[in-house]
Amino acid sequence: MYDVIIIGSGVTGSSIAMNLSKKNGKFLVLEKNEDVCTGTSKANTAIIHAGYDAKPGTMKAKMNVEGSKICEELSKQIGFPYKRIGSFVMAEDEEGRNELKKLLSQGKENGVEGLEILEREDILKIEPNISDDVICALFAKTAAIVDPFLMNIAMAEVAYTNSVDFKFNQEVKNIYKKENFWVIETENNVYETKIVVNAAGLYSDELHNLISNTKYKIKPRRGQYFLLDKDTYGFVKHIVFNVPSQKGKGVVVTPTADGNTLIGPTAVFIDDKDNKETTQEEFDIISSQAKFTMKNITYGSVITSFSGIRAHELGDDFILKEEKDGFFDCVGIESPGLSSSPAIGIYISDLISKKLKLTDNSSFNSKREPIIKTSELSEEEFNELIKKNPKYGQIVCRCERVSEGEIIDAIRRPLGATTLDGIKRRVRATAGRCQGGFCTSRLIKILSNELNLKKEDVRKNSRDSYILVGKVK
């Protein structure tokens, strides 16, 4: 019998788990995939939004502004990349200026600090590549960029090292109430718990609908992106948006926490929650919209493209509440879900703590062993490190300069990587210019050795994504 079972190990579920681990209790996270951070949390714009565009009085507005305020200090506590660089919403005509004034007023009502409208000549001083048509912009100094993978992973690791259990490849098939506790049936196990937290992202409506007569509907919305090589670093220094529309915040041009440039997303409603395909049509939309804010974009520097799917609930707000005795919903967590996750974790865990009368965990430790990055070490630090462990001197991924020592660390650390993508999210091997063209074979060998697997059993990500499928005769 668990006190709390959280379904979903994305950034929302992991934040709740981390905050619950500050209390005494028996907690479990169930994840249908092979690792944390495998859904919406791994494919987004990696932005901590300031909070001016959410409708005042909504849970989106409340959680966004609170989460944004928490995030910088949290990044220092648990160790994930965070850079406060500010954002611009660009306008190219007086109609757009009027929209910016509305956003400014709305942001102030939401409690966002540091908002102002700048004119073209002031913007050019800090963003020389803005479009010739831009006349003014709303500047939000509190907006930031993060590494969304490491943010999610850091929260999960802290939860795990403070005694939260994680079980993977556990897709939930049924939930029902039995006497005074909940029963959760997965593909191959049955669990019992006093409290259920539904943090299942795109599938949160389906889990909710199993236990409630009030039905929710997630309409999946796909967004596609271009990722540009690090040789574009400095082309854009802030997060740059179009004036938003009903479909979202528009195409964004932004630096990433790792030094790349990211452009996107589109906003296309689809029927299949697993359809992450990319299309030429949507990339044409990205390139045509991006030119309204930035010029001189070098599309020849694109190293990959990808899509993510947002969990848009038809009510258009975050649903964060106890739906039924001991069943807590986190439904419709789309943008600004990443920004809001630190606040959501506190909010839901506080509700649960009060309900169960949980006591403080006096041994809680928010510190985690940092992931060593040899590329960020001084020459002296690097030499000392390889004296202790020569494997840190063996570079496996040349594009991102990731060593064998870092890759082994990614596998051996708490909730360590078990797949190629798991390594990628933790230390960026295969994330560079060649996209794994040169290092994949060595990564397979390391995973095989560390996990005692046959090479043909090493996977890219999910259970059936085998890389080696036969031998050349």
Main pleated sheet: 8 strands, mixed
Euclidean distance between termini CA atoms: 53 Å
| Rg computed from alpha carbons, rounded to a whole number of angstroms | 22 Å
Mean pLDDT over all positions: 95
> What is the overall silhouette?
globular
**How many strand segments?**
22
Residues in β-strands, percent: 15-25%
Number of helices: 12
Folded structure, characterized:
The protein has 473 residues and is of the alpha+beta class. The chain contains twelve helices and 22 strands. The strands form five sheets. Strands 1, 2, 9, 10, 11, 12, 19 and 20 form an eight-stranded mixed β-sheet that branches. Strands 13, 15, 16, 17 and 18 form a five-stranded antiparallel β-sheet that branches. A hairpin with a 2-residue loop joins β19 and β20. α2 packs across α8, α10 packs across α11 and α10 crosses α12. The longest helix has 20 residues.
Topology summary:
Layout: E1 2-7, H1 11-20, E2 27-30, E3 47-48, H2 59-78, E4 82-84, E5 87-91, H3 94-110, E6 115-119, H4 120-124, E7 136-140, E8 144-146, H5 148-161, E9 165-167, E10 172-178, E11 181-186, E12 190-198, H6 204-211, E13 218-228, E14 239-242, E15 252-255, E16 261-264, E17 268-269, H7 280-290, E18 302-313, E19 319-324, E20 327-331, H8 337-356, H9 379-388, E21 395-397, E22 402-403, H10 404-412, H11 420-427, H12 440-451
Parallel strand pairs: 1-2, 1-12, 2-9, 5-14, 12-20
Antiparallel strand pairs: 3-8, 4-8, 5-7, 6-7, 10-11, 11-12, 13-16, 13-17, 13-18, 15-16, 19-20, 21-22
Helix pairs in contact: 1-5, 1-8, 2-8, 10-11, 10-12
